[in-house]
What does this fold into?
Amino acid sequence: MDLSKSITDIWEENKLGFENKLSRWVRALNCGKDVSMLAKKEFHQWKPLKTYISVSKASSASQAKYSMRFYGQEVANLIVKNKEVLLRLKGHVQKNEHWFGVKTKDGDYPWRSEVAKDFRLNFKEFAKEQNGFPDVRSSEHRIETKFISEMCKGAGKFNIPGLQIQPVLIAGKFPLQVPVPISANTGKPKAGNGYIDILARRKAEDNKVRLSVWELKGPGEYKYAASQAYIYAYTILQILRQSKSKKEWYKLFGFESKIPSSLTVEAVVAITKDQQGKFLKEKNSLMKRVPFDLGRDSIKLFVAYYQEKPDSIKLEQNPFSR
It folds into this structure.
């Protein structure tokens, strides 16, 4: 199946709905960006807890709700309104006690209160006990958290000298799972909300900054990874070429310039080395049935073999070296 043709057909069939959805999403995220600039001054990341922003939460220019996650699993929300930050535990109390043994009564608590302080400390102590490998619902989410933390480091990230890559962040601080109107969960494109694991910006060898779509799989897992990365990379190109809100999206991705006439989007599969055979098999299949050169635009497929450490991710080699 030609994935690119399928995506193009789905886009044409759902063009009006996609336009409305993309415009609504980017407006919400831009509102969230404004509030996040204020929130950035009020609190910082409390390792190992990490604060994410999403289209479903960043919906107001005066208030924002953030997803607070422990190794990728949501454990609370942060509410920011009029420069006040509240820890909201509604819907998370029983799950936190079940998964992590953290007992906190339901309610809203000031971020600087003793209750919030104890909440953060409990997760910090639990992480120490688990030595960076806590039992969370999804190993992919745990891996995602470590990848984002590694990408945010300075020189020597991933133990690869000279690798220049940063995740797309709101207000330069908050990770964002970029939403797209096409889902790739089954390895085939279909109309429906999809979320890119990590969308990053990488300075390539030619000094051009490229968008880099990362599809992450937990240790020992694979399942359509190359197809998923291709689908999301192609969908990003559709957004930047076909949507009316393309300029707003390009700016949200961290670019101040006009969208260039030629774009290269990187599709990166991040897996453990024991899945190499499955990747190579799927890659060879894709190369035979889908285009990677798309007129002036192109998609480049890469693989990143990783090793998970307690507080980091190491890559066996630079995935972008040929």
In short: DSSP finds eight helices and 16 strands in the chain.
